[in-house]
């Protein structure tokens, strides 16, 4: 056995607490008594909810995987039977977790969205903070300039400013001062990223922006780039200029959201959150991983003979809309629009992460040709065929259509390195300088 992977139990416990996934002592005691061998005592009460345990397993010193350990007996023929932990692996910790009744699984996805992104709609960054309740902010009109932020999966607009507007970050201070001078209004658009598809989010954005003829520059991160493309290219009713920076956006989908990789996506999110030291960045990843773990484990118990991947993706349209598979008709439809001004008004920030630092070796497990047998052992296909920033395939970040080639001058490519990952693009001074330079360019 190995013992070289540090498990950040504080981040995990914070995530479970935020999601209310840790049962109260009485419920846990009742459920635990059901799992003991031998006959039940006469008059013993059945637990109010079904229980399980989520355990964190060290896979041979390379990565961590989330596994289930049922408290009550499970037939060997049923999906969800716990995988045997081999001598090469080690259970790092276990946490009790309630299972969802079959009629609450879909609702749980929406509730997870509510925890990850509690505020919705247009809000405004003003005097150093985001204000508005999502309904009282209206975009300015003709002759005005708007800067709009659109966040990604399991995130919220506050995450941008957690990175940019942090103490001691000189480049962030300069960027915000520049933005305040350059734009008449700085808006954010918050939206549900799991229970709703990118197209539905874009429709909400279109309704919020209305027919404003202001010039709008958009900073989009991750899945927010797909939402932005739908708005700009298909749903926008305004006549102002539109320019967009896409940072780590899955424009041609991401392997992390494909049906066969749902389990691996949770493991990847957990591993990233485990090594991050900043709570505001780590806990949302842990919340996504553990919240989805509860949902998937519950689906396993009620799906019957339905393939797990199909059953899970069907109830999570926010992931299905960015899945990197050949039959993703939503993305195929988006790619057919082909904004004629994309080679002039679109800008891209891309990265490929590789690291030999202690704690980061897990990235190798999810790469093509790296430890393939271990991935197969946990029931996951290879997540990425090549370069990626730990969440999105690098090639997908600039892949708008099959024909369009983006000029190199419109791409900030961090290359292969060990610093820039999917969750910290806006902590980099180069990112902010590139955004500023891109938006200061004339439309011609």
From TrEMBL:
Biological source species: Candidatus Thiodiazotropha endoloripes
Name of the protein described by the UniProt record: DUF7379 domain-containing protein
Chain coiled-coil ranges: none
Domain DUF7379: from-to ranges: 147-311
Region (Disordered): 23-49, 68-89
UniProt-listed Pfam families: DUF7379
